[in-house]
User: Fold these one by one.
Assistant:
Number 1:
Amino acid sequence: MSEKKSKLLILYSTVDGHAKHICEYAQDKLKGDKDIIVASLDDDPAHDLSDFDEILLGASVRYGFHRKNVYEFVRENKDELDKKKTAFFSLNLTARKPEKASPETNPYIVKFLKKVDWNPNLKSVFAGRLDYPSLNCPNRLAILLIMAITNGPKDLSKVHDFTNWIKVDEMIESIRSL
């Protein structure tokens, strides 16, 4: 008799699609080990967590904050999340700097988890990517100003991918053994 697979819900909130990409990548890597559903908080903020053993939540940051639906989801489901094995990752460009590339030193993940009073079993942070060509003019200019101030990339013709896929794989391996 085979061992029953744990049920993993992978949720994401994304601005430009990269959090979704990482969640789908995790699904692909874990598909033989767990029964997995991937869903968007952006499309549907309400999810019944009772059917799942584990929850992975991935969220991107824009202009210093995770999206409102991520705060609301954690607050509304905190009791249920606290009963489950949980993992959270944050995508933000600040994490491209080594001194801000860990869950303990990244200001956005620290601020978010404190504000929602949540302590997931596993926390990760990734720098993500900056897709200048897909941004509209106001966002492109605002992010360009931020990058100028923080010594980030300023070439508007390129997609700058800072994702450390080794760190993503390490998170996935940790989820495998949650």
Number 2:
Amino acid sequence: MIKAKKSLGQNFLIDDKILEKIVDVIDIKDKTILEIGPGTGNLTSFILKKKPKKFFVVEKDERLISSLKKKFLNQIEIINDDILKINEKKFSKDKLIVYGNLPYNISTQILCKWIINLDDNNFWFQNLILMFQKEVAERIIANVNTSNYGRLSILAKWKLDIKRICDINPSSFSPKPKIESSLLFFTPKKKFFKINKPKNIELITRLFFNHRRKMIKKPFNQLFKGNTEIQKKLMLNLNLRPQNLDFATYYNLAKEYENLRS
């Protein structure tokens, strides 16, 4: 039996009821699938039962590759690589449905990479069905004026609609993690705020949320040199704290920052 690697953040999902729930989130018959970190292939087996058109899996751990090849033969195309280094657009001309029991240590990096690199005119995926550490999931779906609201929720909700499907108990995994997990379902928005350089949202939110309990006056002045015109245009109260500004305000701040630098 292959043991999970702690260094790769591996926890293999073994609960058949949860596996079935995951594949029932959306109809995938005749769809092109990408699974991130199939591990021992438990979810892979359930996905194959739904008869996808084509099925890619990305697995970084070389120990698992031969086992996956023996188990699934030519039913899946296995890519032995790091998902953070892959260009997902090269897999297929079809829009992908992506599944992932993401390693806890790099889950936010993966999601942020995908959002930052999205082509506004042609999303490479139809849906994302991803599992995160519960506290990370709560940061992703958080709303303004809540303690979990911050950089991750602002970035994630920029181009994606997000729904929590369920929470998952540690006993559903081997080895058991010390924390709960959550399954999230992502769908691309048809309309979203246009920003030329997504990394500007990262910059703006990083500066504002570096000191989330302090007023926004200091980061605003740092970025905009005390520009009162922008402050008035966005009707900003500089005595507010970062979690008090809604999503649209952060997107507008990123746009104003772009305009100043263009």
Number 3:
Amino acid sequence: MKDIIRPLQSTMFAPAERSNAKQLLESHQELMNDEMLRMISDAMPDVATILSPERQIVYANKALLDLISGSNQDDYLGDRPGELLNCIHAAETPGGCGTTDSCRFCGAVNAIIECQRTRKQVKNECRITSKINNQPVSFDLQATATPFPYSGKQFIVFAVKDISDQKRRRALEKMFFHDVLNTATGLNGMLYVMKEAEDPAQIRVFIEFAEKAANDLVEDILAQRALSAAETGDLKLNIVEYDAAEVMRDVAAYLRHHKIAEGKKIEVAHFDGYLETRCDVQLLKRVLINLVKNALEASYRSDTIKVEAFEDVNRIIFRVSNPGYIPDGVRQQIFQRSFSTKGADRGLGTYSVKLLTTKYLGGEVNFTSDESSGTAFTVCLPAV
């Protein structure tokens, strides 16, 4: 059995107290001896556990045991759900799963707490980032907590279903059709007006706008294709030399005439010297385009979005900043795959930034946000 006896700890959300080893083993043996319970739980196709009032696992069904490749109770007994799933936040505090600041926004622990409070079944979507082979892996889960009074004790049946593929497919499709339809509609409108125009100078202006819209359409398609390939691990890199200042100018030029930039300013900071290195420049541009788009969407008319780059000890750091402030609840979830402030089935913008930066560009992405100085995202890449 794992070290399940821990001293009383403080918490930033759910209670930190845990059962002692004797209580856990007694509950485990009592449940294991119930043949009918074993038959019903093992027939469930989804991962399911029975939790003690302290949110600790005292029983696991066959689907869970298959998932963790073993049937030894030491593999799960006394863990909380986030600890079993290797959630990146579970080790942030001595109290473990449910006790960190990030846990306030976790659909799983909130479902458990609400179920304990109401004694009714609660279903929540849960975004979790696990560490697998020392690499972060994002999951979208449906968590269901159901009251389970048994032998005078108030247990909870906690089941999770992986809906990552479903959420990803819906988000990709919605984003793709939304962006492409907007661009195609604009292009169609310009072509219609161009057909009615007679002034050659005016026609040339329309042609330039139509060309820009057509390029945007191609870029949208390529961006979606790149993200889909990145998610499946099939993305092939094209490593070339690039000039950081030129990349920033290209990103700004691409977005200055975008609808979301109307009334706003994109400022590329002056860069002294000629900073040049190697990476997949198209991926880098997509990362920066996503960040600038997010900054534009979070800004008001007359706001300025600033794009800059600088060197720092064998690294190149790109920074995108805007005057807006990200609320605490958004900050805690901002890099999770299906989280979005733009409505359901969106939420791949900052997730894709992190995926492409960390997995394919060999860098890291961070951000700061406060009410006085605004928000800044940084992309740090190796200068090789």
